Amino acid sequence: MKFIDRVKIHIKAGKGGDGITAFRREKYVPLGGPAGGDGGRGGNVIFEVDTGKTTLLDLRYQKKVIAENGGNGKVKKMHGADGTDTIVKVPQGTIVKDAGTGAIIADLTRPGQQAIIAKAGRGGRGNFHFKSSRNSAPQYSERGEPGEEKDVQVELKLLADAGLVGFPSVGKSTLLSVVSKARPEIAEYHFTTISPNLGMVQVPDGRSFVMADLPGLIEGASQGKGLGHQFLRHIERCRVIIHVIDMGANDGRDPIEDYEIINKELAEYEYRLMERPQIVVANKMDLENAAENLKRFKAKYPDIDVFETTTIIDEGLDAVLYRTADLLAVTPEFPIFNEDDTEATGVLYKFEEERPQFFVHNLGNGQWLVDGDGIERTFQMSRIDSDEDAMRFARKMRKMGIDEALREAGCQDGDVVTICKVEFQFVE
Ligand SMILES: Nc1nc2c(ncn2[C@@H]2O[C@H](COP(=O)(O)OP(=O)(O)OP(=O)(O)O)[C@@H](O)[C@H]2O)c(=O)[nH]1
Ligand SMILES: [Mg+2]
């Protein structure tokens, strides 16, 4: 099974049901009072953390998630049925981004955590709401609000405290298998590990943390070479990096060069991984050349604390675990997003009130265009079947400040204003 950790899907929340126009029918009353019911709200699309899930595979096959529409209002002021919310179960560590802008919509890190990814439309109001002293028998009823619709990029980032990085075959999986119950595949050939493995590590003094064994990195990994790049993203969540070096230089590589290449890749990767505390592990100390190589390494990097290990016989690992736990205790979580994203950090849902309601564009020649989410929503909820409806819509626009904005922008009496493909003439 292929490890899938990035999926793009289309999400659509349910439209609110339409409000209806209806009148009470009573004996001897020719036209009873307005009694058209309200539409029900649509269903939201909600993502929920399910700790039983470890991949985004289900989503890959789904591609589209659509929630139910609300029911239309009924006679006798009866409310239409609300649409059922659609709940999508995702693994812990799932991040949902707007596929267009890259803005983060949700960061689902806690078991059971929910986030509304697409908000349902509200139901339209039935005609009895529009009764007034001037009009006791309104024909007007409102349409349901459209549900939010968007393309989202869903990504899975592992939730590990410490991550093992290094060239292929340096012994990362062996290390994890010795210090935890995880049983990753271990073999002589390169890229044995093709998807990350997680293990819960118990430090002898009782502390514990999650360690991730990641696929081996090679030169150019930050540019997409090997398997490294797609997994470098996972290191972003790790607060401590455990850099494993094959001091025995079994493969004929130079351990010092290996160490420098990996650090260069970490530095070049976008999340500034070199700013994380790093523990340097000199592994395979049982091999012939290891002591000599370590001596050279220490001569070149005298200030680095190197932990000597022989993972196959569980030698030297306790010291690594203690050091990791100590560093985790004092290392705060790193913000997981790019600096330009930070404003969106932690925002689960942007309410429509925060969005600009409309934009005014001067097309020249006395022609104007007004667009934007707010106005388009209002328009879609309004039935414009008659002059009276058009006037109602015009009043709404005035309330939203559109008239004023047009006037300020230089709109003149008699200019033509297009809103949602419908033309209006501007009059003071
Ligand atoms: N001599 C010796 N061999 C070791 C030691 N640790 C691991 N090995 C061997 O090195 C080989 C690779 O080990 P893995 O743990 O699979 O290495 P890895 O870093 O996970 O490799 P990739 O998954 O390919 O990135 C295996 O044959 C291990 O038995 C050690 O301390 N000494
Ligand atoms: Mg491995």
From TrEMBL:
Binding site for GTP: 166-173, 191-195, 213-216, 283-286, 310-312
Every Obg domain range: 1-159
Kinase listed as a keyword: no
Broad enzyme group: hydrolase
Residues annotated as domain OCT: 350-428
OBG-type G domain sequence ranges: 160-329
Any one cellular-component term (Gene Ontology): cytoplasm
Keywords for the protein's UniProt record, in alphabetical order: Cytoplasm, GTP-binding, Hydrolase, Magnesium, Metal-binding, Nucleotide-binding
Region (Disordered): 127-148
GO MF annotation terms: GTP binding; GTPase activity; magnesium ion binding
Residue numbers binding Mg(2+): S173, T193
One Pfam family named in its UniProt record: MMR_HSR1
CDD domains linked: Obg (cd01898)
Cofactor(s) listed in the protein's UniProt record: Mg(2+)
UniProt subcellular location: Cytoplasm
Membrane-spanning segments: none
The UniProt record lists the keyword RNA-binding: no
Gene Ontology BP annotations: ribosome biogenesis
Family classification: Belongs to the TRAFAC class OBG-HflX-like GTPase superfamily. OBG GTPase family.
Subunit structure: Monomer.
HAMAP family registered for this protein in UniProt: GTPase_Obg
Role description: An essential GTPase which binds GTP, GDP and possibly (p)ppGpp with moderate affinity, with high nucleotide exchange rates and a fairly low GTP hydrolysis rate. Plays a role in control of the cell cycle, stress response, ribosome biogenesis and in those bacteria that undergo differentiation, in morphogenesis control.
Protein name: GTPase Obg
Organism: Copranaerobaculum intestinale
